[in-house]
Amino acid sequence: MTPVTLLTGFLGSGKTTLLQRLLTDPAMAQAAVLINEFGEVGLDHDLLDRIDDNVVLMKSGCICCTVRGEVADALMNLQSLRDRGEIAFDRVVIETTGLADPYPVLQTLRAHPVLRSHFNNGGVLTTVDSVNAASQIAHRAEAVRQIAAADRIVLTKTDLADPGDVLALCRALARVNPTAHVVTSDAPTPQIVGALDVGLIPDDIPDTASHEGHHHHAHTLNEDLGVVTFSLTVDQPVDWTNFGIWLTLLLHRYGDRIFRVKGILSIAGETNPVAIHGVQHLVHAPVHMTRWPKGPRTSRLVFILEDIDPDLIRRSFAAFMKLDDVRAVA
Amino acid sequence: MCSLCGILGCDDHWTNAVDRPGVYTRNADRQQRRADATQRIAAANRVLSFRRLSLAEWQGRSYVLSTATGATTIFDALSHLWPEAEAMATRGFDPLDPALIDWVAAR
User: Fold this and answer.
1) How far away is chain A from the Cα of B14, in angstroms, using its nearest Cα?
2) Is the pLDDT of residue B45 over 90?
3) DSSP characters for A134-195?
4) Distance CA A317, CA A138 (A)
5) Low-confidence winner among A54-63, A273-282, A298-307 (lowest mean pLDDT)
6) What residues form DSSP beta bridges with A129?
7) What is the pLDDT of residues A38-73, one digit of tens each?
8) Considering only alpha carbons, which residue of chain B is nearest residue A1?
9) d(CA B56, CA A56)
10) Which of A109, A110, A115, A245 best probes binding to B when mutated, by most B CB atoms within 10 angstroms?
11) Do residue A286 and residue B22 have CB atoms under 8 angstroms apart?
């Protein structure tokens, strides 16, 4: 399985600059790159030094609208070129347009009958512009969605921003997506390249009780957009079947308003935890972790939501987790 | 064949994931797979009974969803359960609807 990393970030946040830099690293020599652009004439691929068969420009429009056909076609084309021995690559990076919602690309990888046998989700890397991000988070749902979907965040233009503003932005990012790890774009290249190898195993999921030193369960990120992040902590082992029914129904009904759900579960009957990753309607294959990360050995789920009351989710979760108790009586 | 996506035999729902290194699944052992499937059907039926629907397995391969009046639909993948259930019921299934929460908690 070849990992596909999604490189996303708001307009002008420095995706192409970052990609340009990453491609100079030897670890990226075998990467195939797909670039999606909005507009008649593609520019970004001209900005990249390494133009060869492994760099493909998709320019028919915004990735949200064209992704199902074009990304799938481009990936299948790369795969068949590789099968014929014409090119070699060990990973794929897809650079999205600045307004793209990452979900359709992930969904394409997951659902496409051919692609899902050859490619898997290598994580979402989101660039965040230190100068403009605070305003983008406040006003643009696309920016919030891109940050919410991130497994890693690369903070760009830190040299142009006031250090106090950067610190405030880091706090804001932690509230939008407490599960993403943040690196700055001036970090050494191997560290940034390493961010592409995020995989889907979390090394830390924040615990509600210790989050920012107080006991609030939910944070309002943006009152205009109604975006809230909250975490659910469960002391008892979770029944996998009940959880599956519950999350499947919840995301079926509310997936367009649940930007992200990520967490680790202590499953009844299992010694090691299971990592769960969902982006909108999509849940990735659950990861069976080899050990517990730092922190308490309790189930922790972090949600990033729009216009949903966290208390209802908590009540719903508690009720559905008792489905198996009911069965025992029936 | 699934009536929604037209793909044959596609039950690789995340709750029933394939047996692959690193992926959590109960799909590796036949007995466990059967026990898990039985449990899943029972749990789903608790929720589906809210709209008088019932779910059964067919040949260990597909799912059959029925209404109280005997209408049925068949599908292969668990991912189609809720879309199919909503299509058959006159109203949807909202896991945050206090009435459904109370129904699930009370029974």
Assistant:
1) 5
2) yes
3) HHHHHH-HHHHHHHHH-SEEEEE-GGGS-HHHHHHHHHHHHHH-TTSEEEETTS-HHHHHHH
4) 30
5) A54-63
6) A156
7) 544 444 555 554 445 556 655 544 444 445 667 888
8) B20
9) 47
10) A245
11) no
CA B101/CA A313 separation, integer angstroms: 10
Amino acid at A175: R
Contacting residues of A for B7, CB less than 8 Å apart: 113
Supply the mean pLDDT for chain A. 79
Tell me if residue A188 falls in helix, strand or coil.
coil
Taking the Cβ of residue B39 and every Cβ of chain A, the question of whether any pair is shorter than 8 Å is answered with yes
Look at A253 and B23 and tell me if their CB atoms are within 8 Å. no
Angle at B29 between CA B26 and CA B30, to 5 degrees: 110
Cβ A253–B78 below 8 Å, yes or no? no
Residue A4 near residue A31 (C-beta atoms within 8 A): no
Length of chain B: 107
Record: contact B43-A312, CB cut-off 8 A: no
What are phi and psi for residue A297, nearest 5 degrees?
-90, 55
How far apart CA A237 and CA A216 sit, in angstroms, is 23
Find the range with the poorest average confidence among A54-63, A107-116, B8-17. A54-63
Q: Find chain B residues with C-beta within 8 A of A316's C-beta.
A: 95-96, 101
Residue A168 clears pLDDT 80, i.e. is over it: yes
| CA–CA separation, A289 and A137 (whole Å) | 33
Mutate to test the interface with A, among B11, B36, B39, B50 (most CBs of A within 10 A): B39
